[in-house]
Amino acid sequence: TMEEPTLGNVELDTYTGKFLRCIPGLLSVVITDREGVILSKAIQQGATEDDGMSSTFATAAEQASKCGLGKCKSMVSFYKNNIIVHISHLPLVITFIGTPDLNVGLVLGVQAELKRSLDPLQISVKNAESEI
Fold it and tell me: Which letter does DSSP use for residue 5 in this model?
């Protein structure tokens, strides 16, 4: 397992960056709130950033959860040059962008550990949202 991040500073970016070294084909990891505000990111040089996709995913996940199939936990999108995996940990959204040969199973396999590590940040963002 990876070390727990110290939230609110450089250590979170360092923790996020460890995924780039551990998952072949991974180009970037971005953690945002549901509005798309970037809280942490680790991006390979020359790779694509999130570009607002996380806020669209948050809305889509909330709507998909209303279909009677249960809570939407993640979505995977396959494109010509990239695979994008969004993981819901609302109000946080974790976005992985990879090459076409990204091992999606490996990305989805780390989500439980990642969510557990981000629980303190999730609670902080929820509390901040409730104060608005």
Answer: P
Is residue 108 within 8 Å of residue 24, measured between CB atoms?
no
User: Which DSSP category does 66 fall into?
Assistant: G
Give the residue, 128 or 61, on which the prediction is more confident. Answer: 128
Tokens in use for 83? 């695979």
Query: pTM (2 decimals)?
Result: 0.84
* Lookup: tokens for 58: 């948050």
Closest by alpha carbon to 58, among 110, 19, 103, 95? 95
Residue from 83, 84, 28 nearest 56 by CA: 84
pLDDT for 7 equals: 45
* Cβ burial 90-105 (10 Å sphere, 16+ → b, else e): bbbbbbbbbeeebebe
Query: What are the tokens at 69?
Result: 């199939």
Determine the Cα–Cα distance for residues 132 and 115; give it in Å rounded to an integer.
Answer: 24
* Rounded-to-integer distance, Cα 64 and Cα 46, Å: 33
Question: Residue 2 CA to chain centroid, in angstroms?
Answer: 16
Tokens, residue 28: 């970037």
Question: Contact 34/91 with Cβ under 8 angstroms?
Answer: yes
